[in-house]
Design brief:
The complex is a heterodimer. Chain A is about 0% helix and about 55% strand. Chain A is mainly β. The chains are: A mainly beta, B mainly beta. Chains A and B meet through β6 and β11 of A and β4, β5 and β9 of B.
Amino acid sequence: AQSVTQLDSHVSVSEGTPVLLRCNYSSSYSPSLFWYVQHPNKGLQLLLKYTSAATLVKGINGFEAEFKKSETSFHLTKPSAHMSDAAEYFCVVTLGGQAGTALIFGKGTTLSVSS
Amino acid sequence: GAVVSQHPSRVICKSGTSVKIECRSLDFQATTMFWYRQFPKQSLMLMATSNEGSKATYEQGVEKDKFLINHASLTLSTLTVTSAHPEDSSFYICSARMTTGDYGYTFGSGTRLTVV
């Protein structure tokens, strides 16, 4: 079965400094991996996704993630944090190519950004 | 792009009553819809997978008689919380996967259920 582990429940950074949110995955097959963001009392927004194409994936708002099969990791990064980045981030996995396959969410990482 | 419309966005109900949540795919056919539940400050937990024209598949620990799922058409799936109790208060969100294009997932905007 596939799963994801988000290694940090809470990350705090200062505005303008780099962001690193860590995620490890477990999957018996070639996974599709996603990062979603959820702002307070809001729905989910897709940041980026990996679906077996380029291992370095660029997303919205300056975020990117690198798929490393040898390390079973899919860490999310951003060079410079902005106050508006404060939110809950979810690393998500699914088996690729099957319409009936649900997304499996990690426990989430709360990103706090201080001025 | 693909849109899933979820209603209501918020609902408050009394203990013992039932609440129906609807998710409609507006511009595509959703043969499969996924229902998630999110408790405050926690992650989304998959409750069930809804398939058009057949019975839903429930995840372990989810009471199928309490959380009734109906997927009668390719554009509508409903979740009914029956005999609601305060512990059912949660954020419920549906999701569907495109069967064409980039096979991306799209989410409803969620329903905040409060049982008093």
